[in-house]
Amino acid sequence: MAVQAIKAERLTGALSRETVKKNVAAIHISGKLTLLQRKLSNVLLLNAYDTLTSARSHTIDARTLAMMVGYNSNDIDSLRASLRALAETVAEWDMLDEQGHQEWGVSALLSFAKLKNGVCEYAYSPALAQKLHDPKIYALINVKIQRNFTSGHGLALYENCYRFVRTGSTGWWSLDIFRKLMGVDGSSYYETFKHLNAKIIKPAVAEVNKSSDIIIEPQTRKKGRAVSEIRFLIRENPQMAMFQIDDSDGVRNLAVYKALRGQGISDRLARQWITEHGPEYVQEKLDYVAGQGAVKSRAGYLRAAIKGDYLEPGSSPSAATPPLDPDAQARLDTARARRDAEKAAEAAAFEARTAERKDRARHLDTVETLVSRRNPTQRDADRRQFLSRLDSDLDREHFRQHGWRSALNASAIIAFWQELEPDAFEDTAG
What sections of the sequence does the record tag as coiled-coil (predicted)? Predict the structure, then answer.
């Protein structure tokens, strides 16, 4: 059960971790949950995880819960319906205990849930809580990535494949087991593999490969002429690394970025190198490679130069290089001086943006702390008051989606909270 690209309101405690441990046995449950119910189950588990076995019940602000799952924060009826479904859905596990004895069990996903005064309180049965919390047998599910999914079957397949990413394969599942994992067991229509493949497997695989951090490939095995088993080969999705690199620093506007792209370096790799090493270092390696004349693979040589820190300090041109005439040397010196000045200006601007970003992050961390101290009624009033100050529809929509971590409204958010509690920002100044 398993949230990506939305950068919602910054959360505290377990919710700030972004990943939730899903027990291997428990991850096979509740295939018949809808997409939103499955997302809800994951967020509730993430919120409760730190005290899963020590607390009798757990609480979360209902609006925060709705926001993380993707509900309209005012759609309490849908939230109630989904909580009811979780309480009515049976989880089943079948596993070996520490002594090697087989253990089978069933439990409702939630033993109870209630909404009161803007707060959702809920609990797990002790037996299920132990299974969900087991540190030896779990998968880590990214609760941001689940935001990308638009179908319950896609998310269910992702959850059941993700825990095998290190081994590279799910291993063979019988079709009966697979139908159960996808929540279509008991349907005569999906008893036919042709229908199962067309309506469940192919769309779910396509969504996992498009929306998550893994790439999966189905393989089937036959008994006689009929397909009897299925497995999924799994590897990490290299494109997902692109989404982890923040371009708020304006990396694409740097001359060194454009030079890298001109050398055939991909957008993702160019931004990664600049972010990791800084624009000046990367430009130095570009200059080094340019001075080596014809090479078999300029991009490959550049990669090696960056990794190996080629061009040691103090290196000088070859003695075999003929001297330039005075006019040519003057033009070369002028070009080098202009390039050095541009590099210095870029480096200074890069450092300034980095410092500004860090200051902004510290201020938004303070905002997060202030928000966490306020009760649900106060939080709702704060959001309405802030929204009333925004003139642009784009700004208001961005705030509705991303809350107090809205990058588009960062300056306005910080100013708003500095007015409310100016003393809180004294420690973050400078």
Answer: none
